[in-house]
Amino acid sequence: MEQRMLVGVTVDNAVAVLRIANPPVNALSAALRSAIADAVQQAAADSGIRAIVLAASGRTFVAGADISEFGKPPVSPTLPEVVELLDACPKPLVAAINGAALGGGLELAMACHERVATSGAKLGLPEVKLGLLPGAGGTQRLPRLAGAATAVAMVVSGEPVTAEDALRHGIVDEAVEGDPVPAALRRALALADGLAAPTRVRDRGDRLGPREAFEAAAARALQRVPGNPAAAACTDSIRAAFELPFDAAVRAERDRFLVLVKDDRSKALRHVFFAERAVAHVPGLPKGTRGREVARAAVIGAGTMGGGIAMCFANAGIPVTLIETEQQALERGLQRIAGNYATSVQRGSLAAEERNRRLGRIEGRIGLEHAAGADLVVEAVFEDLALKQQIFGTLDSIAKPGAVLATNTSYLDVDAIAGATRRPEAVLGMHFFSPANVMKLLEVVRGAGTAPGTLATAIELGRRLGKVPVVVGVCHGFVGNRMLARRTAQAERLLLEGASPQAVDAALVAFGFRMGPFAMADLAGLDIGWRIRKATGKTAPVADALCEAGRLGQKTGKGYYDYGGGGRQGAPDPAVQALIEAASARLGIARRSIDADEITERLIFPMIDEGARILEEGIAARPGDIDVVWLHGYNWPAWRGGPMFHGEQLGAARIAQRLEQHAAHSGDASLHPSAALSRLAREGQGFSSLSEAAA
Ligand code: 3H9
C-alpha cells in the first residue's frame, strides 16, 4: 500500500510514467527503493508497455540516498541493486529531472538510457561533502557521460552543475523549460521505435577522454583538498574506469564506499548535515510564524562590525542607513566599506558594476533619527550597557511601529537592553561574527520578552543575508563566546605552566583548526580582549603584559609572535618567552614540560564542559546547535562534527575523568567538571539528555 504511494504509475501512449513521491526531497529510503524496483519490474513485464519514464513529483527529482540510513544495517534492495535493475531494464528508460538530481538521485538517472532535465535543475554527486564517494555506480557512469576529467572535478568538489552545463558535458540529452516529462515521453517513444536497443551508459567507454587529461584534472582537484581521504577515494575510483572492466570497477567503488561510511569523519559530516538543518526548527516558535518583511534596514555604529553588517544588507539587495554620531567616524566607516569592496573587485571576485550597486544601497547619516524609516535596526556600537540602553531608549521613541530592534552585543544582557524600551517584544540580539560580511554564523539571541514574530524576522532575514541563524538564550557571551572564554583561559594558563605559544597553536592546528588561539589573537588584535577585560574587571597576566608592552598583534608588528619579517607568518620571539616566564614567577606557578595531548584536552574539554552547562540551562536547544555555532563562527573542523559531537564520541565519563586529572595536576580549579557533565558521566547519558531535560 505504502509502496504504491511512494511511486505513482500512469500510462501515456504505452509509456509507463513512474512518479517518485517521497517528500520533502524524495530521498531514497528503503521503502522508496523497494517501490521503485517493483514499479520498474512491473512495467518491464507488462506487454502493453513499450518504454518507461522515471520522474518525480514535488520540488525536486531525487536528493540522493537517505542519509539517515547510513550506519544502519543495509536493507535490500540496496541502492546499487536498484541501479543495476534500471541498467538491465530491457525497455527504453528515460529520466525526467526537475529540481535536483544529487548523489544517488543522479546515479539513478545515469542508469537510464537517456536524461531530460528542466532548465536550471542542479545535477551533481555531492557525496564527498559527507566524507563519502558515490557508491551506486556514479564514479563509473559520470566519466562515461561527461569524460573522466570533468567527472573528477565534479566528484572531488561535490559541486553540482546546472541542466545547461550538464547538457554541454553530455550528462543529459536535453534541457527543457518547465515540466521535463513531455520531452522524456517523446524520447522514450523514439527509443522504443528505434531499430536497435538503446545504448547503456556502461557501454560508453568512448567518452572517457584521454587518461592524461584525467590525471591532470585529478591532481588539480586534489590539490584543493589535501589530505581528504574521501576525495582521494573518489579519484582512485574514477581512475578504475581506465583500468578495470565496468562491473569490477563498480564493485571496487562499493568496497571503498563501505570503508568510508564507517569512518568517523563521514559520521561527523553527516551529523553536520542534519545539525545544520535542525537549527531551522526552533523550539517554542509556533509553526508557520511569519517574520516582518525587511525592505529597509539601519545599522547604528560605523565601526568594523557595523560596517561589515551594513555590507551584509547591501550584498543581499537591502537598502541600509549607516548611522554615526560624528561625520569623521562615518566617513572612516564608509571608506573602510569602499576599501573592502575595492579589494574584492581587484581580486576579481566582484564585478565593478555590482560593487557600485552595493555601495549605492548604503547611505551614511548622522543622528539616530535616520533609523525612523527602517523595518529593522541593528545596533553595533561599543560594548557599554549604559550606552546601548540609551540608544534603545531613543530608538523606542522614533522607530516605526513593529520595527525589529536588534543589538549586536557579543556578551551583554539583551533583556537589560530591551528593558530600556517600551517594546521588549520587538527587541532581540543579532550577534554577527567578525568579519561580519564573511562569517556565516548569526547567533539570534531570544530575550525574555522577544515576540515570536520578532524572532521569525531575524531568522528569515539571517537566511536572506546568507547566514546560518542559530537561536540562543540570554547569558554572558551566549553560546560561542561563552565557550571560547573557557578555551582562552586555558590557553593563557598553559603558557604560565610552561607551554610555548607555538606549542599551543600547533596542538590546535593538529586537531584541525586553521589557526591556533595565539596566531588568531594576533590577527584579530589583542586590544579588543584587553578592553573587555578592563571593562569587566578581569585579568590575563600574559595577554595584559603584551598589551602593556604595546604588542597588540599583527597591526603593531608584534604580539605573541614577531611579524618583523613582514607578512602574516609570525616568528617565535624570545622577548615573549621572557615575559611569560616572568609572569609565571610572579604568580608562583612552577613551569614544566606539557605534552601536545594535554594541551589539546585542556583547550577542548573545558569547552565541552561549558557546552553541557549551556544545554542544562536551555541557552542552546540541542547539542547540534552548539556544533553549528562552532562550525560557522569559529571554523571548527567540519570533519570533527563540532565540540558536542566530539564530546559525544569520547563520552562524558572520559572527559570528566580527564578534566579531574588535569585539575589535580595543574592546580587549576576551573578545570573541575561541572555538575552537568559529572551527572552525565555518572549516569552514562548523552548530551542530548540535558537539552531534553531543559525543554
Ligand atoms: C548518496 O546519495 C550516496 C550514494 O551515492 C550511494 C549510496 C549507496 N537524506 O536541505 P533542505 C532532508 S549520499 C535524508 O532543508 P533545501 C533534510 O534533512 C546523498 N534527508 O532543503 C530536511 O529535513 P527537515 C547525496 C534529507 O530545499 C529536508 O530534507 N545527496 C536528504 O534547502 C529538506 O532539506 C546529498 O548530499 C537526504 N539525502 O535543499 C544531497 N536531503 O525538513 C543532500 C535532504 O526535517 N540534500 N534531507 O529538516 C541537499 O543538498 C538539499 O536537501 C537539497 C534541497 C538541495 C536537495
TrEMBL record:
Residues 297-473 form the 3-hydroxyacyl-CoA dehydrogenase NAD binding domain. Residues 477-563 form the 3-hydroxyacyl-CoA dehydrogenase C-terminal domain. Transmembrane segments: none annotated. Keywords: Fatty acid metabolism, Isomerase, Lipid degradation, Lipid metabolism, Lyase, Multifunctional enzyme, NAD, Oxidoreductase, Peroxisome. It comes from the Bacteria. It catalyses: a (3S)-3-hydroxyacyl-CoA + NAD(+) = a 3-oxoacyl-CoA + NADH + H(+). This is 3-hydroxyacyl-CoA dehydrogenase NAD-binding domain-containing protein. Pathway: Lipid metabolism; fatty acid beta-oxidation. It is found in: Peroxisome. Pfam families: 3HCDH, 3HCDH_N, ECH_1. Its main location: other.
